[in-house]
């Protein structure tokens, strides 16, 4: 998957787990938490959704890479290289 | 071999099940009863549908609200706001001798009422609200502290203290006289700050959506499947044996049966039974169907929490029923678009579990009827006389609650000591539901979610 495709996947996941947030103006370099209402339960869901869809395991110590859209995409890019969107 | 077996198809078990099924864990809910539901449930009698447990859904929030327990819950269960169809209340009261406080889903109404009725206390009340807001009630490691001590340190009028405790205890306290402060905060937010709502169809709708979601994600539900024993080897659960002898194997077991009730099912009992002491707070609830709407008689409150005495006493009474206080609920008095089919009044009062459990069957029915009449007479001091409009009556006691939920003593709010981590003496046996300690109908579902997330999804 390309970076753009991964970004779209993450957007879809965010829409799914937090449907009441407006994501149209999401800034990729600002932490998700500062732009929308996300708690630790929601972060677990991002991780779990990625695992469910692409069988990628994200260990808890790597959760910090999921802070912003940009860091999430660059973290996932090598891990989802062979996955199809 | 299941990943997880969940004991009990009530709201907490179904919520845990939805989380696990959504993430493709092989999961099975085993339920003793012939239908879903636990402490919140429903039944049909003489062609009328009734709710049990649910007077109102607490933690009300307007559709689209981004924070708070209800929003969190819907997101976690992948449900939409419409699914629960929550209609806000019309307004409720706490009625004590000489003073009544009204509250709605707008917190400022209660604040204003307190400022008018207790002007000397309003600053203290605001400080208390600040302490409530600052408290993290979701911290599973919080130490138990006396809510009464904290409330009394900010509010010096004993009547106001009792009036604040009255609805919170009636709607969620497993302990007499006092509450753990964390439990107080959960209930304060749920009842006063967020408020009440109800689906037009009642608890059935919520239960149905939950079970549809669970099955839709691939979860398995076995009704009429009471657990005989939780099986373990070397400190680890291996599965359960059902009452019909079937053995189901699982990597984990989550029990919503209650802490003491779950321990009784274990083949190896805990070395330290003390934390698993059952609760003893229960109620008798009377249900009246009317030939008119309660509002036709001038009764417009959603819930009335009443107390006729100088002090409000929340304890298991020495008498069969404590007639001094109670709860009047009218499921009609929510802001529905169309009225319910018939008028209903439910009146609930504290009951002595021992008395109702041990009463011989031949006296049980007569006693239930006699106390139903006494409860009504007591409640009529706080509402219009509706007796000439009654077309049907039913009542349930601690005995009924135990019969249908298997909770000891008919204890609707479970054990006095909550096991907030959900962990037990067996490594992979977890508790959810009322004895894990998130209170109310929304709390029960959050309990299932929290335990599933913490111990089953995150850990694996």
Question: What features would you describe in this structure?
Answer:
The complex is a heterodimer of chains A (85) and B (460). Chain A is 49% helix and 0% strand. Chain A has 85 residues and is an all-alpha fold. Chain A is globular. In chain B, strands 1, 2, 9, 10, 11, 12 and 18 form a seven-stranded mixed sheet that branches. Chain B starts with a strand and ends with a helix.
Short structural summary:
The complex is a heterodimer of chains A (85) and B (460). By secondary structure, chain A is an all-alpha fold.
Q: Unreliable stretches of chain A, pLDDT < 50, 5 or more residues?
A: none
**Count of alpha/pi helices of chain A:** 4
Mean pLDDT of chain B: 95
Structural class of the secondary elements of chain B? alpha/beta
Range of helix content of chain A: 40-55%
N- to C-terminal separation of chain A? 6 Å
Q: Based on the structure, what is the oligomeric state of the protein chains?
A: heterodimer
Total helical segments of chain B: 14
Descriptive labels:
heterodimer; A: 85 residues; mainly alpha; B: 460 residues; alpha/beta; seven-stranded mixed β-sheet; 22% strand; globular
Secondary structure layout plus pairing:
The complex is a heterodimer of chains A (85) and B (460).
Chain A (H helix, E strand, L loop, with lengths): L2 H15 L14 H4 L4 H15 L14 H8 L9
Chain B lengths: L1 E6 L3 H12 L4 E4 L10 E5 L2 E5 L16 H9 L3 H4 L1 E3 L3 E5 L2 E5 L3 H11 L4 H13 L12 H8 L3 H13 L10 H14 L2 E3 L3 H14 L3 E3 L4 E7 L2 E7 L4 E9 L3 H7 L16 E9 L12 E5 L17 E5 L13 E9 L1 H6 L2 H19 L10 E7 L1 H8 L23 E3 L8 H18 L3
Parallel strand pairs in B: 1-2, 1-12, 2-9, 6-14, 12-18
Antiparallel strand pairs in B: 3-4, 5-8, 6-7, 10-11, 11-12, 13-16, 13-17, 14-15, 15-16
Helix pairs in contact in B: 1-9, 1-14, 2-14, 5-6, 7-8
């Amino acid at each position: 998957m390309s970076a753009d495709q991964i970004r779209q996947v993450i957007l879809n996941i965010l829409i799914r787990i937090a449907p009441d947030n407006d994501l149209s103006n999401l800034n990729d370099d600002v932490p998700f938490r500062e732009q929308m209402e996300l708690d630790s339960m929601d972060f677990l869901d991002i991780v779990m959704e990625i695992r469910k869809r692409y069988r990628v395991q994200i260990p808890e110590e790597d959760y910090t890479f999921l802070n912003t859209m940009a860091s999430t995409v660059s973290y996932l890019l090598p891990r989802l290289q062979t996955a199809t969107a | 071999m299941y990943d997880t077996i969940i004991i009990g198809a009530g709201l907490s078990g179904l919520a845990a099940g939805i989380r696990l099924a959504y993430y493709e864990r092989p999961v099975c809910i085993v339920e003793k009863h012939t239908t879903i539901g636990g402490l919140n449930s429903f039944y049909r009698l003489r062609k009328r549908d009734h709710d049990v447990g649910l007077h109102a859904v607490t933690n009300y929030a307007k559709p689209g609200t981004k924070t708070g327990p209800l929003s969190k819950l819907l997101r976690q269960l992948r449900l939409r706001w419409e699914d629960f169809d929550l209609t806000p209340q019309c307004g409720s009261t706490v009625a004590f001798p000489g003073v009544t406080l009204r509250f709605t889903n707008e917190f400022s109404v209660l604040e204003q009422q307190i400022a008018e009725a207790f002007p000397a206390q309003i600053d203290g009340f605001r400080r208390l609200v600040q302490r409530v807001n600052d408290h993290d009630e979701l911290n599973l490691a919080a130490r138990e502290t006396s809510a009464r001590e904290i409330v009394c340190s900010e509010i010096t009028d004993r009547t106001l203290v009792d009036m604040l405790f009255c609805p919170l205890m009636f709607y969620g306290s497993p302990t007499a006289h006092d509450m753990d402060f964390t439990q107080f905060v959960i209930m304060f937010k749920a009842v006063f700050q967020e408020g009440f709502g109800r689906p037009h169809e009642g608890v059935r709708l919520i239960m149905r959506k939950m079970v549809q979601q669970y099955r839709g994600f691939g979860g398995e539900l076995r009704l009429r499947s009471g657990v005989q024993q939780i099986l373990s080897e070397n400190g680890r659960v291996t599965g359960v044996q059902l009452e019909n002898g079937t053995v189901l194997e699982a990597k984990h077991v989550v029990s919503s049966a209650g802490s003491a009730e779950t321990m009784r099912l274990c083949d190896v009992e805990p070395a330290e039974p003390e934390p698993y002491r059952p609760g003893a707070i229960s109620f008798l609830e009377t249900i009246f169907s009317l030939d008119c709407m309660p509002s036709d008689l001038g009764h417009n409150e959603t819930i009335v929490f009443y107390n006729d005495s100088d002090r409000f006493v929340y304890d298991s009474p020495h008498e069969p029923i404590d007639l001094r206080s109670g709860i009047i609920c009218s499921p009609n008095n929510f802001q529905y678009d169309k009225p319910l089919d018939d008028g209903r009044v439910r009146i609930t009062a504290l009951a002595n579990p021992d008395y109702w459990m041990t009463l011989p069957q031949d006296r049980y029915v007569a006693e239930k009827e006699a106390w139903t009449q006494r409860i009504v007479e007591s409640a009529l001091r706080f509402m219009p006389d509706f007796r000439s409009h009654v077309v049907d009556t039913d009542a349930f006691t601690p005995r009924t609650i135990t019969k249908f939920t298997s909770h000891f003593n008919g204890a609707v709010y479970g054990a006095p000591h909550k096991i907030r981590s959900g962990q037990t003496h067996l490594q992979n046996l977890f508790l959810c539901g009322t004895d894990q300690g998130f209170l109310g109908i929304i709390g029960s579902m959050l309990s299932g979610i929290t335990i599933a997330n913490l111990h089953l999804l995150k850990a694996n």
